[in-house]
Structures are given as structure tokens and as C-alpha cells.
Amino acid sequence: MNKKFLVPSLGSLGMRSGFCVINPTFAKLQAANSAALEQGAIKLRVQAVRSGAELKVADLLFNPEQSFLWSFDDEWGLLHEPPNVGDDLYVVEYVAASPSARAQAFMASDLEGQLFFAAPDQKWYATVINGFIPERSKGYRFAPIFHAGHYFVMDERFMTYICLVNYNAEQMGQGDDGNVMQFKLLTDAGDVLGSTKRQIRFNSTFLISVGDLLEEIGVDKTSTGHVSIHVRGGASQYAIYTVHRNLATGTIGIEHSLAPHYYTEAVMKPETRAVLYQKVFGGL
Amino acid sequence: MNTTIGMRELVGYSLVKAKSKALGIKKNIQTALPSLFGMPIRGSLVQFYRNDTLFDTVLSFTNYLSYFLPDEEIAIVYSVNVHDRHGKRVASGARRVGPRQTLQVKLSEFVSGVTDEFGLFCVDASYKPRYVQSAGFLGQTSPQFMTLFIPRDPAHGPQMIHSHKHFEYLPLLKSPNTRRSAVIEILDRLRQLDLFVLNSSPSRVHGSIELRSTENDELWSSSAFEIPGHGVTKISHEIKPGARPIPRAVSCVLSLDKAIHHRKPIIFRTAIDGIVTCNHS
Fold it and tell me: Which residues 94-123 of A have a C-beta within 8 angstroms of B?
């Protein structure tokens, strides 16, 4: 099974994207029970996706001297393309030169990658580590997703953004279709402020600020205090990030969400999963 | 490479396995007898705090049962214990988070007595066993909180780290281990790296952090340390031209003499223009 590392674009915040992955051809990084892959056995492919369709593909080669491969978006063949409008998605995957069992075993293992978001002048960066996701086969039935954000920062200095990365290989280049996602906003006291729905285009980065969501439901962001947001819907592969931003300087902090099994064992058994989904997604 | 495993290390490794098994047994007992032993909730979870001139620590809690069980009115009690960098427990407190509610509060307001500039804290959640009929199908759940580092300097952005590592109560025997983080740091864009290593166990831990060039794996820096039980140590690197050439980027290799659960140092990096960002390694 191919695994992908999803690199969102924060182009609408003026940030550049980058990533770092381990080099499987570097001997010292190998796990104790597996040998390094020989030089040239594997490479890295970066697929740049814009407006839901493939824009460019770049292959990056591993140097066996180096323990990691890190790269920013100026190395992905995009220099002569129109500027990123903000919904770009960069899909990173290891590609084996030949179908060797060792390469396949490596690509099937638990893989992690590091995301970088740098200022345009590259003088500072924010970073976060996250896992690769498995690419689902054709016809796979995706479950809806649920995200509960309660850690937003919104005042005169800061704003928080929800970043939803929607990946669905089967839908690549198939038009403007996507998933409908419901955003329900609540006060700290648990009172519902309102809800709104947005379409999240397949194979794109969707970024929205808490302030914009409040505006969309007609609530004055200067008088609400903290809010929490329940996001429901989807049926696709999602990577979810929270981006905190300093409004004056543009500096950010970023963190990823955790998979649902961290929060309840109910998702791990079909009978309890069905009960959970009925309760969480009922009325959607 | 020849590896010699001594009897103490072997016993230590066995104890780590036994502790993992004990956590599973505890969960099974709680699942079977919640009225006696409480609902099965993962814990205690550990995280880092700093309360200094650069950042203040804010905790965000939510009532996660409200979105798993929207028709139930179940309150969650979150309790927090705070330790200073030397491992001494200095403060504790608890707050109720009602149905559908969220609580965002400074750590120093959640509990009083946080006087050290950094250290670790642990979080537990509980709710009443009488809800076992409606909530039992969830199995083991986990406290849901986030740690926010709110900058005091007007230039930085808020930083945030999730938690899923355990605060440990049982002492550990020796079980040497090494972990190479998948995180690198791009040194030619930084002027300082601050690494905070948490000791989630009650046992004193000895170890080292190596920073190795990603270009050729050459050692750039090695720092040995000793951390008291439930303590935190800070390792700082000023990145300025000197006798040693500075690699473009480094990876972090953490070696410890005990297999503590939290083995991901918290990194605060200061960029060449002074901006500070943070994540776990």
C-alpha cells in the first residue's frame, strides 16, 4: 500500500511550504531489523496539486551521505507557474525504482514526515511532525470525520485558523467536487452560537479563520470571548492542522490533530464504532 | 556492533513490559468495575510548561463526552499536578468542565504556586461511574487538553503542543535506549536552540543529546545530562560562527539510561530574526 505525506499550503498567509523525511538509503537510520536500501533503490516524488488537479510532479533523489532529505517549494518545479492562490496541496511519497521486497517493506512501515512553513524571506520557520497516510484503493468507502477544536486564540493580537487537507486520489482532477463540512460554533459555556457549512474541494488545502467563521454566522468576534468549534462531515482522507498567527508580524505556530483512536476505543470495534457514528453524525 | 545486556538492563526491560501490561490490566479492571475503580480513562498525561520572560502557559480543556454523547449531561473533572524543574510537586488543582463546555485558563491560574520558570505537569480526567450505561461503549477514553504557549513578546505567535505521553508513578530500573527523532533543525536560519527534556518517571535519569549533521551524520554537539524524577532539564545551543563549522541542518539523537515514556524533547528555536517557534521532536 502506498503511503502519502500531505503537505498543505499556507500560501494565503504568505508562507512557503517545505518538508523533511528520512533517507532510507542512509544506513545508520535503519531500524535494527532492516538493512538500508541500496543507493538508487528509492526516490521521493512530490506531486503539486492546484485547484484539485495535478499541476507538477518533481522527483527528488536521495544522497546516501545524508540522513534526511529536506526540501522547500522552490525545488518542486513551480517557479514558472502562476502564484499559489492558497489551496495548493503537495503530496509526497516514496517511489521504489523496482518492486523489491525491502523497499516495499520500508514503504509499508510507520512513516513520519516533518512539515515546514517559512516566512517568504526564509528567516524563520514553524514546523510540526506528522505521519504518512495510507492511500486508499479505488472505491474505498470513507467515513465522515469529526474534529473538535477548543484551543483557539482570538484577540487583538492573534487569530487561529483551521486547516483541513482533503486528499482523495480517485477524485484527482475530476472537477470542483468536494465534501460538505459543517462548522458548529459554541461559547465556552457550551451555548451554540450558530453553524455554517462549507464545501471542501477534493485534493486541496482549505484554510479558514475562526474570525471568518464567526462573521459567517453573524456573530461579532470582538464580543464572544473564546469559542470552540465542532467540525463534522467529509468522507475522504483528511489531515487537520491548527494554525495560530500573530496578526502584526505574521508569525505562526502549528499543531496537528490526533487520530480518533487516541480519544476513544469505540472506533476500534465495528459494533461500538456504529454506535459512536450514529451519536456523533446523527442529524448531519 | 556488539551489545552486552546486563542483568539490570534485562530486569529493567522486563519491568517496562510488565508496566505496560499493568496499565492494560488497570484498564480492564476499570472497564469491568467502574463503580469501584472509576471509568477507564487514560492517564495521567504529561506535558511541559514554561512561565518565563518569553512565554506563558495556557491550558485548554474540553468536555469530550459531549460530542461523543450529545444527549447526555455529563460533567468532566480535570485535575492538574505541577512539578518544578527539579521534580518537586509544587501545586495541584481541579476544575469541573460541564456539558458542552470548554475551559481555557493560564496554568498559573488553574493552580497557585507555580513559581519555577519551567517544569512539567500532568493531567487526569474523571467522570462519575453512574454514566457507565451510556458511556461504557466508548471503552477507554483520554483527557482532551492542549498546551498553548502564549508569547509575551509582541513579535511571536502562539505555539501549541498536544499530549499523549504518560506521567509515570512507578520507579524504573536501567534500560538503556536511543531514539533518533524524525525532526531536523535548519541551523542556518537559527541563532539559538533550546531543548527541554522531560523525565516522566519518578527515577533519576541520565542521558545525552547529540545533534548530528544531516549532510553526513557528523557529530556537531553532544550534551550529557541528569534529570531528577519528574524533573526537566534545559539544553541550550547558541548558533554562532566559531571554531566548529555549523552544519546546515541537524537531527537530534536522544539516549537515556531508562525507558521513560516521554522521549520527545520539546524544542524552542530562535530564528536569526529573533522569532521563536516550538514543537516536540
Answer: 112-114, 116, 118-119, 122-123
Q: Does the structure show a pLDDT above 60 at B7?
A: no
Query: Within a 10 A sphere around the Cβ of A169, how many other Cβ atoms?
Result: 17
Q: Which of A242, A258, A268 sits opposite B160 (nearest CB)?
A: A242
Q: Which one has a higher pLDDT value, A270 or B18?
A: A270
CB contacts < 8 A (A, B): 187
Examine the pLDDT at B114 and tell me if it is beyond 70.
yes
Using pLDDT thresholds of 50, 70 and 90, give the confidence band for residue B117: very high
Q: Which of B101, B141, B189 sits opposite A264 (nearest CB)?
A: B141
Find residues 159-178 of chain A whose CB sits inside 8 Å of chain B.
160
Would you state the cell numbers that stand for residue B98, as one nine-digit string?
460541564
Integer Cα distance of A231 and A74 in angstroms: 33
E strands in chain B? 45-50, 55-62, 76-84, 89-97, 102-106, 118-126, 145-151, 159-161, 177-186, 190-198, 205-213, 219-227, 232-238, 249-256, 266-271, 276-280
The edge-to-edge listing of strands for the beta sheet with A68-72 is: A68-72, A16-22, A112-118, A125-131
Neighbouring residues of B88: CB distance < 8 A, sequence distance ≥ 6:
none
For residue B13, count other CB atoms closer than 10 A to its CB: 17
A 175-204 → B contacts, CB under 8 A: 186, 188-191
- Structure letter (DSSP) for residue B155: T
**Position with higher pLDDT, B236 vs B38:** B236
Closest CA–CA distance from residue B140 to any residue of chain A (Å): 6
Environment class of B242 (CB within 10 Å of its CB; exposed 0-12, middle 13-18, buried 19+): exposed
For A97, list phi and psi in degrees, rounded to 5. -70, -35
Convert the pLDDT of each residue in A229-277 to its tens digit.
999 998 899 999 999 999 999 999 999 999 888 899 999 999 999 999 9
pLDDT at B119 over 90: yes
Residue of B102, B139, B214 lying closest to A188 (CB–CB): B102
Q: DSSP letter at A160?
A: E
Grid coordinates belonging to B21? 501490561
Higher-scoring residue by pLDDT: B258, B128: B258
Collect the ranges in chain A with pLDDT lower than 50: 31-33
